[in-house]
Write a structure and sequence with these properties.
Distance between the termini: 34 Å
Radius of gyration: 13 Å
Strand content: over 45%
Number of helices: 0
Number of strands: 11
Structural class: mainly beta
Helix content: under 10%
Shape: globular
Order of helices and strands: EEEEEEEEEEE
């Protein structure tokens, strides 16, 4: 399984970015996929997750109403649309797969991780 993120960059506050995560060798739609982020000196935290088998989407409170997670199964790609970005959204963003769904924003549930893409908001 290989997860490759893209779409990060530097934007001004109030701007938008769309992250993508292409999954190779992974077609287990019964498990959850998610986006996590880690700022310097902080723990990795869940941002958004999608569990298709349950029809469930979850967001961290800090991003509700601003971020949207989606998935294109035909392209094996997970997306995170980020709008109204704030400086506190600055972090390395990681894609994850294989989540069991008990707590979809818990990083310990996920078996597979990408290498991350940097988002900087100033």
């Amino acid at each position: 399984v290989q997860l490759v993120e893209s779409g990060g960059g530097s934007v001004q506050a109030g701007g938008s970015l769309r992250l993508s995560c292409h999954a190779s060798g992974y077609t287990y739609n019964r498990f959850c996929m998610g986006w996590f982020r880690q700022a310097p000196g902080k723990e990795r935290e869940g941002v958004a997750s999608i569990c298709e088998s349950e029809g469930r989407i979850s967001y961290a409170d800090a991003v509700k109403g601003r971020f949207t997670i989606s998935k294109d199964n035909a392209k094996n790609t997970l997306y995170l649309q980020m709008n109204s970005l704030k400086p506190e959204d600055t972090a390395m963003y990681y894609c994850a797969a294989g989540g069991l769904g008990y707590d979809p924003l818990d990083r310990y549930e996920y078996n597979y991780w990408g290498q991350g893409t940097q988002v900087t908001v100033s």
